[in-house]
Each structure stands twice: as C-alpha cells, then as structure tokens.
Amino acid sequence: MEKEFQRVKVVTLNCKIVLKDPGVGWRMEKTTLKRSLGVWALVALGLGYMTPTIVFDTFGIVSKLTNGVVPVAYLVALAVMALTAISYGKMVRAFPQAGSAYTYARETMGPRLGFLVGWASLLDYLLLPMVNALIIRIYMESLFPSVPVWIWVLSYVLVVTAINVYSMESTSGLNMILVVFTLVLIVMFLILATVQFTNGMGEGTLFTINPLTNANVELVAIFTGATVVAFSFIGFDAITMYTEEAKDASTVPRAILLTVTIGGLIFFIASYFTQALFPDLSRFNMLDDTLPEIGLYVGGKVFQLIFIAGAFGATVASGLASHASVSRLLFVMGRNGVLPKKSFGYLHPKFRTPVFTIVFTGVVSLFAIGPDLELIASVINFGALIAFTFVNLSVIVHFYIRQRRRSGKDTLKYLIMPSLGALSTGILWSHLHADAFIGGLIWIVVGIVYMLFITKFFRKELGSMDTIESVEPLDEEPINSSELGGLEAIEGVEFVDNGVIKTR
Predict the structure, then answer these.
(1) Model confidence over 192-240: pLDDT tens digits?
(2) What is this structure's pTM?
(3) Three-class secondary structure of residue 486 per DSSP
(4) Of 176, 240, 261, 456, which has the maximum CB count within 10 A?
(5) Using CA atoms, how far apart are residues 252 and 20, in angstroms rounded to an integer?
(6) 469 φ/ψ angles, rounded to the nearest 5 degrees
C-alpha cells in the first residue's frame, strides 16, 4: 500500500531516501564514497595540492628575506608543519568523518570559536585559486613580455571556471601521473645543477655550508622567510578530506605525516641546490617569480620551456582543485544559511554544480592581475597558520582536558607536542608581512560582525560550514512515496505518515 508524503526540498549532499518500514515511514541513508585510496595515493594527492615546483617560484622572495639561506627557512617550516601534521593525525582518529580545522575547533571549543577559525581558513581557501592565476600570469609574462598581463589572467580564469562549471572530476591516478612528472622534472633540475657546479657556476661545488649559514643571517629574518615558505606546505591538510575514500581510514594520519616529510625534503633539497647555484640575486630580473629564469640559467632555453611547461601543468592542476574546493565550501555555507542561500546555495539543475560560487571564485581570481606573490602568500598564511594553531589546541582540549589522558606518555602526546606545535605556528604567524597582518585582522573583524548579524547577536544558532543540514518544505502538493527514492536527503531525518519531518 502506497503512502503519501508532503513534497519537500531536501538540502543535502551524498544522501538518498530509502524505505525503512512500510508501517513507519522513510529514513535517510547516507551514500558513502568508495574506499579506493591507498596510502601512496593519498600522499600523491597531498603532494599534488602542495605543488612542489613552488619552491622555485618563491626562491627570489625568500632568498631576499633570509639573506641567502632559503633551505634553513624550509627546515624551520618543516619542523612546524610536522608537529601540526601529527596533531591533524590525532584529530582525524577522533573525528574520522571530519576534515577541517573548523570542525575540530567547533567540536572541541564551541561553534562560535569554530566559526571564526573557519572564517580565517576561508581567507586562504578563497585566495589559493588567485595565487595559481598569479603564477600563470608570471610564467606567461616571462615568455611573452609584450602581451598585457590581464589577457593571461582573464584567459586562465575563464578556462578554469568553465571546466568547473561543467564539472571535471580528477582521479587519483591522473594526480599520481602529474606528481611523478613534477618529481622527474625536479630530478632533471638537480642533474643539470650538478653539471653547472662542475662548470664553476655559483658556489662551484655542491658540498658547501654557505646555503645554510653566512655572516648576514639573522633569526628574525629566518622566521620571516619561514612564514612565506609555510605557504608551500598548504595542502597536506587536504588529505583529511579523503578520509571516507581511504581503503583504511587509520592510514590517513600516516599519509599526512609522509606528505609533510616528503614534501619538506623535496623543498629542502631543491632550495639547497638553487641557493648554491645562486648565492646572490644579481642575475635575476624578476624576483617575484624566479622559476623561468632558474630554468634558463641552469639548462638553457629548451629546459626553460620544459621547466615552465611542467610547472604550468602542476599549477593548472592545483588551480582546478583549489577552485573546485573553495566553490564547494561556499556552496555548503550558502545552503546552511551561513552565506546568502539564494545565490551561494544555488545548484545548477543541468550541470549539478554550484555555478554561482564557481563564478564568484573566478571573479576573486581576477584580482591576480595586480598584486605580487609575496603579499598574497602572506595573506594566505594568515588564515592557514590560525587554522594550524587551533588544530594543535584542539588536541589539548579534546584529549588532555576533556578525556583527562594525563599519563607520562599521554602528557607528551597530548599536551607538550601540540603545545610546541601551537607555539611554533604562533611564532610564524607573528612574523607575517605587516600588510597581510592588517588585512587578516580586518577579515577577522568582518567575520565577527557577520557572525553577530546572522545569529542576531547570538539569539540564533550558527549554521554549519562543512555539512549540509537543513530540510525545507517546498509546496503542499502530496506525492507518492515511491517518488521519494530519487531525492537527495540528509541522514538522521525521517518522513512519517502525517508528513511531519522528524530528526533523530
């Protein structure tokens, strides 16, 4: 016997309605993702997001900031990120279906503080696609200096936006190919660099400590450089988003630590060779992105083209991923009422993509026409370092304070190590570019004002930033229950015989 239910608009993702009991009603069952990713597939995804060639893009900026000891800045950043990666691993085990600093802060320290952490993180998510557009602009400008830069930015943004609108799914296999190609490119650079050492270029030898120390080195300068290169590590935390697609969720913490370690070693080795080749910056015409000139001086015009082509592909791949990620995040926030629902929560009926948020992200990316890479990287780090700090603090609150795990070993794991992680990220945060610091604080103030607005001064609860959770009546026309099977719905909600929607 068929039962009739009120027609509803169900706001959610990755769920379906299934028959629970003909005498009781319907329930929502979550459609889970296929668990197909092994440890190395996860590591490849993290490395692909990090874009290893970024070490050559930012070399000039960091070398200037550190007075010629770029590898040391990467070592400092690696130590900080390793502590944070360990904390991410602990929180992934505690919240295996979550995957963001926002979620961890919300679950351990409350929704309001969680919102502000998420708001700070949103800043770097929004700007990451713009950084990729900016790097593409610099690549093309180095090859075609007479062409106006806005043409390259506009063309790139239009293509990436269009692909995301029509929905392009990247696979871990394709990502693995891109990562392997990038690593082969870096190995080629190391071989050519070794040849140049034998020809007397730079230090004239690989075996030198000059890339690690010199008479002009200052601790403050190293920390300032480390805040910039910390930008290179952004992406390892994205592995947590694939927890439900990992063959074994318990391998995710290991994959995170492997990604940070391998990425850090790549950055250190590549920057060491580069610093030894270029003890000073006198040969560079453009410090904002030195990759094209590094390729030219090390391997000639042919290698320069190969170097740029490889870096171009890696940047585009990263750009597609970051564009898709932030547009989806904005879409979820829109559907949950954190952002205006009518526009940000709109899903195209044909393409099934959040068209408005994709286009919005593209418009933000157009600002790559103007600013320099150093400033944008610093602004991104403002949000990222706040997020990393609160991931470390979440470990302390969840394990040491709430669960009272305070044995000698647990004190080391859940108090001392995350405290060092929070302190070190806080130190990097304090050495940010002054303009980035001001801009970031303004962004936080805007977030506080916006939170007060959407909660009507805390008289309403905050919506979620990472899961879609609302169900709304659409109209009064009843439909057969058999029609409900094709709708998307949210887990934990039931339709009962009288049409009332209940939550479990």
Answers:
(1) 999 999 999 999 999 999 999 888 888 889 998 998 888 788 777 767 7
(2) 0.75
(3) helix
(4) 240
(5) 33
(6) -135, 10
